[in-house]
């Protein structure tokens, strides 16, 4: 994650880095471009995100804040997609339009929703891999902390990081899963 911050300092925007992670802006032959287009499907991102909320429900109330954030971002993209399903079929189309309009960095932009959904999926993937591959000797709290540190913390400001620590402490005190 430090490397990503360094890349941002060298002229790469946070948005550009996220687009590269989602394989939206890479050149290649026609077959590779078709694969990227398929991976950049707005409906596919929404589907994965909705399935993720169901998984988070199963984990319990510990990750409620993450679940609510995902739901809010899903709703933002669904609203846009409902306005013109053909126009907003791909994530690239959404990001390109918002960048041209100069709205991509606004708090309520769909570009930011895409960015945070990708990060939430990355966090969840990291956590679920640890859950599957770790012995009982590591607590869920430690796994969540590790996943957060590796995936979301570099992108959170001090307020979000503080809220995470407070939420973590609250769930520990009240006997939630963490």
From TrEMBL:
GO terms for molecular function: ceramide 1-phosphate binding; ceramide 1-phosphate transfer activity. InterPro entries: Glycolipid_transfer_prot_dom. Residues 41-167 form the Glycolipid transfer protein domain. Coiled coil: none annotated. GO terms for cellular component: cytosol; membrane. It comes from the Eukaryota. This is Glycolipid transfer protein domain-containing protein.
